[in-house]
Design goal:
Rossmann fold, 6-stranded mixed sheet, globular, 5-stranded mixed sheet, alpha/beta, 3 domains
């Protein structure tokens, strides 16, 4: 069960009240459930595309009907598999990862891990401890053409004699469906085609992996259905938990509080990565958008800037009081915050639907299409161009670095070169960080192995940056974030100051049937991302470690401290 919310809105109160009244007059909730595309666009062609992306609103009867089929299949897999490895990206992988991290595997059910990184060390790590005869592989892709998923499949399929250890989740008629039929996959689940990837948590893309973990998907669906009823077409906006959350997000952003800072009880903290993708990729376009701040270490609330809006999701069974104490401090300072609670972990089913509706509502009020991702495609296209250059010319066509030392190369626009002299790596980084201003955010874009060691080092750098500048921060591993916050970074407001991080890999890892390796694919993705950021006038520096990731991050930690020594906070 999901409880109601507690709100402290301060100066936002009047605007929120007026908006709720306006939505009631416009019959917004009824129109939402009737799938009226005019809530997001006045363009006929765009409206037709949106109409084919709203199936998540009424998929529950179909999923209820297929529940026993999913459960039977999960029992079959349980009988011969100790491990399930899901190969996916973005919306196809984030919900399963949340389920795995929050619930773990039920008694006798296989553990489930997710591969969503083209870093060769990450691919090797996914293979460690995997017994080819005791592992089932889930290939998850709506389009069936996702480059990363294709590479993952090629790699692991080359280690199997046939397709019997594989299952696919995809749209009807996709290349992945055809591949599954041709290669004799154990099962091909065909998802309703009118659901976009990031709105697919309560479809086969989320429910099948959940069932493979032994999670009671009937309880997940019941929680979602309860949220659907509480937020249904006859419930006024002011009393509608999902619509109301969307209004709060939008009005906060319109008032300049466009850094939605997500706080969770530790037991459900992984849910934030899914929210981050949903909100950033849906809202970040046409120069508008909201940055979801997920995973940032909690600071003294008095240090936060005026661009923050806080959202706290509490688990009733939590044994950790730290987040509760911080929330109490936030409330005591009068900072705008909304707090919600779930009574049990299956209540995440309701939260998936609450946030899907809230995000769609928020985007409507901001005036953007919640269901496209034009800059994700832009980065993919640029990556494709880099790979074609490699196939034709044998090189990636990298530009010369702005400056380098024994450990680092820095790539940046010539504007960071001081007049009359050559910059050092530290002075160039200082000049880059000094381009920040009030209301900006700092983002670390790490094309590195997403290991716990690298994440800990990056979080330490992130915390240092936040404390010294007072700015909101974001941290993502590439290429994963390209399918998440990457859309906001290029299509949203020009408030980001970016550090792209790359390093030399330890050996190449070939992709069977392709003329390039995983390491080269990752480098091409980083280059395509960098080109896209520059093309959109973003402030970005690429820091490349000539050694490994550990050396890069150790040097970067030293440089950021030196670069920000004595700097004024931007809040």
């Amino acid at each position: 069960m999901n409880k109601g919310s507690r709100e402290l809105l301060g100066a936002l109160t009047a605007a929120v009240g007026a908006r709720l009244e306006s939505l009631a007059k416009d019959e917004f909730v009824r129109r939402l459930w009737e799938k009226d595309p005019s809530l997001w666009t006045g363009d006929g062609e765009t409206a037709e595309k949106i109409s084919n992306r709203l199936g998540w609103l009424d998929l529950f009867p179909d999923m209820r009907e297929r529940k026993e089929e999913i459960r039977r299949f999960a029992s079959e897999v349980r009988s011969d598999s100790e491990h399930v490895l899901l190969l996916g990206m973005g919306g196809s992988s984030l919900c399963p990862e949340v389920m795995s991290l929050v619930f773990g595997a039920g008694g006798g059910f296989p553990r489930l891990s997710v591969l969503d990184s083209t870093d060769p060390a990450a691919v090797r790590a996914a293979e460690v401890g995997v017994a080819p005869g005791g592992t089932s592989y889930v290939v998850a892709s709506k389009s069936g053409t996702t480059a990363e998923v294709d590479a993952f499949y090629r790699y692991f399929a080359s280690r199997q004699s046939d397709g019997s250890r594989f299952l696919a989740i995809t749209d009807p008629g996709s290349p992945l469906e055809r591949l599954g039929r041709e290669r004799g996959f154990r099962k091909v689940f065909l998802n309703p085609p009118d659901i976009g990837g990031r709105y697919s948590a309560l479809s086969f893309f989320g429910l099948v992996p959940a069932a493979l973990l032994g999670i009671d998907i009937g309880r997940l669906l019941s929680s979602a259905e309860a949220m659907g009823a509480a937020s249904g077409p006859s419930v006024p906006p002011a009393a509608n938990p999902a619509v109301r959350l969307g209004v709060l997000l939008a009005e906060a952003a319109l008032a300049g509080r466009d850094k939605a800072t997500l706080l969770f009880s530790p037991e459900i903290a992984p849910f934030g990565a899914w929210v981050e993708q949903l909100l950033a990729e849906s809202s970040g376009k046409e120069g508008k958008g909201i940055l979801p701040v997920h995973g940032e270490n909690l600071a003294d609330p008095s240090a936060y800037g005026e661009d923050r809006f806080f959202i706290f999701l509490r688990y009733a069974g939590t044994k950790h009081s730290g987040p509760d104490r911080r929330v109490a401090q936030i409330e005591a300072l009068g900072l705008p915050i909304v707090s919600m609670e779930i009574e049990d972990l299956h209540g995440l089913g309701g939260e998936y639907l609450r946030w899907e509706i809230a995000t769609a509502v928020c985007c409507s009020l901001l005036g953007v299409n919640a269901f496209d991702e034009p800059n994700v495609k832009d980065s993919k296209d640029r990556t494709g161009a880099v790979l074609r250059r490699f196939e034709e010319e044998g090189n990636l066509g990298e530009e010369a670095p702005l400056v380098e030392d024994g450990v680092l190369r820095l790539y940046a626009d010539p504007g960071l070169r001081p007049p009359g002299g050559e910059p050092s790596t530290t002075s160039a980084l200082r000049a880059h960080l000094e381009r920040t201003k009030r209301g900006d955010f700092l983002a670390l874009l790490a094309y590195l192995e997403p290991s716990s060691e690298n994440e800990a080092r990056l979080q330490a750098i992130r915390t240092d940056l936040a404390e010294r500048t007072g700015l909101a921060t974001s941290l993502g591993f590439g290429p994963r974030f390209l399918h998440s916050t990457g859309q906001l970074f290029k299509g949203g407001p020009n408030k980001g100051v970016f550090l792209q991080l790359t390093a030399e890999d330890e050996g190449e890892l070939p992709i069977p049937g392709l003329p390039y390796s995983f390491g080269l694919l990752k480098r091409a993705q980083a280059m395509g991302d960098l080109e896209a950021l520059f093309a959109h006038g973003r402030r970005v520096v690429r820091c490349h470690g000539k050694g490994g990731a550990a050396e890069l991050l150790g040097r970067l930690a030293e440089m950021t401290r030196a670069a920000l020594s004595g700097s004024e906070r931007r809040t």
